[in-house]
Amino acid sequence: MSQTRQQILQRLKERGRMTVAQLAEELGLTPVTVHYHLNILQRQGLVDAQLERRGVGRPRLIFFLREEALSQFPHGYHRLAARLLNELKARLPEEEIHRLFIAMAREIAVEHGERVRACKTLEEKLEALVELLGEEGFLARWEQLGNELRLHQYNCPYNYVVHHHPEVCDLDRTLIAMTLGADVERSSCILSGDVCCTFIIKPQSGPLSVELPSGTHG
Fold first, then answer.
1. Ordered DSSP codes for 191-217
2. Can you tell me whether residue 145 is helix, strand or coil?
């Protein structure tokens, strides 16, 4: 994003609602330039506007941020998550931490997975799963190589946390397995330096089981 548009978003975040004239004055730009950048931000779904009537005279157009614009500002969710995991690890055994991740994956699968389970074929379920993963922040796609179905994830929304807590990687694998009702094997991982995380999807041959770390007992 251009520096000018970032400055406009910052001013709107600080002030709440502003006119083109107010933005132009604060940023030292012409109203035409400000309007040009606001039009782009509106098309991107980051800024909205409404007419405001103030007694006598023409109404003025007021610009404000949409909720979607909040993602453009720095946040520390990943650091908070890492600190919470540090505390959990200090207080709970490894087996219990793993069970928490399984419970989280199950909750997401139940909450969003109905449209996946409604599909008839595994291929249709994969299409729906890619949409679900997109809502969770993953850039994913699937392909068929011979008799093998593969799901690729080209980014990791948990990237910062995963580097400090690699066991978080099991969350998406478990989510995929539970949502598809299939056996899932990870064959590559971004954390290991691979281009993407790749999962091999196999039709479920028996009751779905989620493995606990070695040394634990389910």
1. GGT-SSEEEEEEE--SS---PPPTT--
2. strand
* Closest C-alpha to 19, from 68, 52, 54, 66: 52
Quote the crossing angle between the two packed helices 94-112 and 169-180, to the nearest 10°: 40
Which residue has tokens 């606990």? 212
pTM greater than the 0.70 cutoff = no
Task: Give Cβ neighbours of residue 133 (< 8 Å, ≥ 6 apart).
Answer: 140, 153, 172
Please, are residues 183 and 116 in contact by the beta-carbon 8 Å criterion? no
- Asked if residue 118 is part of any domain, the answer here is yes
**29-33, 37-41, 82-86: least confidently modelled range:** 82-86
Q: Is 13 exposed, middle or buried (0-12, 13-18, 19+ CB in 10 A)?
A: middle
Same domain, 37 and 92: no
Instruction: Please check whether residues 67 and 105 belong to one and the same domain.
Output: no
Hunting for tokens 């007021």 — which residue is that?
62
Contact 159, 148 (CB under 8 A): no
CATH number of the domain residue 148 falls in: 3.30.1380.20
Q: For position 205, what pLDDT does the model report?
A: 57
Q: What is the pLDDT of residues 120-132, one digit of tens each?
A: 888 899 999 998 8
Confidence of residue 214 (pLDDT cuts 50, 70, 90): very low
Which tokens belong to 190?
């971004």
Domain boundaries, position 186: 78-203
